[in-house]
Amino acid sequence: MPHRELTPWREPRLSPFAADPFTSIRRDMSRLLDELWSPAEPRAFGPPAAALWPSLEIKETDQAYQLSAELAGLEQKDVQLDLRDNVLTLSGERRDARSENEDGRYYTERSYGRFERRIPFDHEVDADKVEATFKNGVLNVTLPKNPNARDQSRRIEVRTG
Prior knowledge:
By secondary structure, the chain is mostly beta strands.
């Protein structure tokens, strides 16, 4: 039997491109949370759950908040707005159905889903003056700030004594 020289044991080196040990944990937790919040029944077709949530743009001025929400494919009757305790709730339901009949093959795709977004505001909103318009799949909401609550800072006199 030939004589082999033994090489000393060395700790394995991680390549500079190897992920830190927490990356796999973060990835697994993210996957777990995605599975937790995804629909119970898998959908082979149709939009992912995130596609149901409308994209929002919110701007603030001294007088009001301006909110714009992209709600393509929805009609005005599918959208509901509620304001309570300075929190605007935008909710609705998407319903989409498409059918194709080609070469004797029939294909139908349907997707349904409710969405709800809650938007809290820092300043008190004047609920009686909130206005909303819906045109071409875009919802625009103007939420005036309550003029009495708009500037709640004041100088406090310090007295001796």
